[in-house]
Batch of 4 targets.
Target 1
Amino acid sequence: MPPIVDVQNLQKTYNDGFQALRGINLAIEEGEILALLGPNGAGKTTLISALCGITTPTGGSAKVGGHDIQSGYRETRSMIGLVPQELALEPFEKVMNTVRFSRGLFGKGRDDALLEKILRQLSLWDKRDNRIRELSGGMKRRVLIAKALVHEPRVLFLDEPTAGVDVELRRDMWEVVEDLKSHGVTIILTTHYIEEAEAIADRIAVISKGEILLVEDKEALMKRLGRKTLRIELNEPVSKIPDALKDYELELCPEGLNLTYQYDTQKRTGITRLLHTLAKEGIALHDIHTSQSSLEEIFVDLVKEEMA
């Protein structure tokens, strides 16, 4: 089965010569959640804008559901739902009317049962008769999601959907996203909250300076690039690391009671030899703890390497 979103060498160069997209290649499978991560100015919003028909690419091509985003604009746009970063809503309109109007824009007939389902799903049903200006920032963000879903898109772009939303509302939205996925909706998510990608994404794409650095299954990425840290608690403080342990590049805490050792999970760890050497040097252990790199640490390291 071909990918539902197929991007080939997509480019965007502005009149001043700035290259926002430098030959993007990306294939997104139907029903998956892809997290698009990158620093500010990396090209995330430009890529989404190009796929949604908001900005015109200057090179390459892209298809959504087999339709070209330029020659088949109407077909692709009808398949796409977009939740933008900006809270662009009519402040004096009611929630229900705002969402219903969006469905009409796509030529869809009235469906009050669907509207109720979406508003309930987003905890907006009790606010349906409120004017937009009466809502909190988090509730306005939910209205944007409702507007994006009301024409029943197959592909949903979420551009920083939980920006400015408190933790509780953010987790509620994660549940909404998971439910959409269970109904076959493909979701492309850009976010600054790395834990968001770590919690709900199937795959991770990292973009920097208009180029895709990698696209990989989240679990495989964390396994391949993640590093583990071994923290060793000592019974008695030491003033320095013995010469016999210099090869391990250990870090000694200021108090002298903890040693930290980082190792690559894909190589021989050397932990057994390390512990044996500690015992040989007469250093008694109180406890040991291990932790693995988070997705945020992996992402920061990748971008640092690219910018170096």
Target 2
Amino acid sequence: MADNSKPTAPLAEVISLAEFIDYQQGSVVSRTLVDKQTGTVTLFAFDQGQGLSEHTAPFDAMVQLLDGEAEVTIAGNPLRLKKGDMVIMPANKPHALRAVERFKMLLTMIRA
């Protein structure tokens, strides 16, 4: 997974989230917009068939789909998300993501 770990969003400028990250064939691309002690905001672009295997996180996280279609499984419950949909993944619950078709998402994780 490609990761631009340093925050890269221009401050005090209007951006189009879906256009701020590009798809990469056969890959998952991430771009960190905000990285603070209290939380992170990260853009992701998943090519079709790509995903993140089941894992847990110690904090709640919100996923907002900006483009495409994804399956998000939370504690064994598969959910289908399309452009404009969002879901909150509760802390300490196993979750996984899979690109039904290529998709872009904004992940917001609150640590405090």
Target 3
Amino acid sequence: MTSASRSFTTPDPDDRCPCLSGETYGGCCGKYHSGRQQAPTAVALMRSRYSAFAVGNRQYLLDTWHPSTRPAVLDLDADLQWRRLDIVDTVAGGPLDTTGVVRFRAHYRAGVERGIQEETSSFTRINGNWLYVDGE
């Protein structure tokens, strides 16, 4: 038996945000994805990038990736379901900082398998905009 691939869908503004902040998508990551606002902190950018992976917003991911480390092509796996984001630790990355570090755990499901991606991500702010630099 084969399972059909799921497709990415943008949540309704009143749906719960995929980053699980407790806010609606429109009041949380949706405002960043739409370009209405820029993420004010490294953590907000991390949450919005996680949500972009969850909803398949490839362009937002590329737009918020530092040009020095941004891939030329970004393929997203629609069969990978991002289920939960846990912010573990942050260093700097506030509204007045120019750099920040966010350590997180992203829980996912791929078919019947479950996993966790744990990463320490580096961010920089250029001209008021936070950008993802890299992660380990």
Target 4
Amino acid sequence: MSFGVIFSLTLYFVLMLGIGLYAWRKSTSNSEEYILGGRQLSPAVAALSAGASDMSGWLLLGLPGALFVSGLTQSWIGIGLTVGAFFNWVIVAPRLREQTERYDNALTIPAFLSSRFPSKALTLRSVSAVVIVVFFAVYTASGLVAGGKLFDTAFGDLVDIGGLTRYQTGIVLTMGIVLIYTLIGGFLAVSLTDFVQGCIMMLALVVMPIVVVIRAGGLDVTAERMFSVDPNFLSMTHGLTIIGFLSAVAWGLGYFGQPHIIVRFMAVRSVKEVGTARNIGMTWMVISLLGAIGVGIFGRSYVVGNDINVADPETIFIVLANTLFIPLITGFLLAALLAAIMSTISSQLLVSSSSLTEDFYGLFLHREASDRTMVNVGRICVFLVAVVAAYIAWNPDSQVLGLVSHAWAGFGSAFGPLIILALTWRGMSGWGAVAGLVVGAVTVIAWIALGFNSSFMGGPGVYEIIPGFIAAFIAILVVSLATPTEGEFRPLETPAE
């Protein structure tokens, strides 16, 4: 490993730890500051924090890898995500920012749901916390898998360390750095590091496709090589079935139920600034997704033209970084990948620990705990969730995209319909909320267990978020219409207490 790579990565690590220290001094005196940054995020920080915590290593590993293998048909995932993210900003963001403050200044999604549906408060907080911790353990594991693959692929010249393989060493190092700044600085540290990491990610995704095309000899040569690989490589519809299309664009449904993303909406300084944050966030997302598509498509052309072996398609970004750039720039690009990985892991760890702290410890074990005690318990929970995620990620054969897709579907189905209807429908009842949460989560788990996401009725698999989202939506409507709703909607005109 060259000095240039070490220098760039060291600089990146120091920057992240420095932000964590700043946040510790600025915003960890009570639970609201540690969990939600005191609701004082600027539009730019909120937008890029939501985007960076959303995309994770999937943006630089999973999506380029899928495009590298299958061509432009995989871009429908990105299109579905873009549409879903836009409507998430329009439908959920302003309402969630308003209502979480009105409903007893709720700091977590489970706390908001319990205040919104007081008749089923205990049940909703308990079940929500369980769903969040279970699916986030899997989701966080996907980020650690990405960190392991980065270390194993990029630093192949290093020997195994202390009985650990390079892959396992990558998991430990990734988890260690994230834990330090998350434990120290809480939500503000996570959000500020997300902002910086989002900028680094976008810059890397703009630079790499351009350099790949230039080094390949221009667009004409690049296109010619792609057609030589597969005449339909650049087709968005070749071989695409209706089920395949729906499974790809259905990724967008997941946005409405991702706690680590929508919690950013709760932390924006004011409802009036949500529109500005939306514009910034959507611009960042479109540029970054186009860059990721370019890495996968142009990367396939480049490795074919130069006879480069790529053992794992999900490492194409790393292979190109090592092949095309001087060590100093390679280090920056690898830091961008680490940024994508760490930004999501830190957000997921914090949301998981917040639910364990606020919705389990504070609810069942110590109702009168002081703010300082709650902050310290939150830090312990961050560590515990990280350990479980590392255990899940320890297998080097794990796939980033597969782990992300399961967790994404789980959250999207369990919380998506629930959040949308809780914010917009006065007729929703407490029992309806519980039904939607349970039915959505159980449907996704059952669909995966039965293998219907791989093969359904003799045909291609159906992405589990489709049946999960639909089943949860129907469950909420049916149960709510059959049960009383009196006292379970506080009109927005009522001043916050």
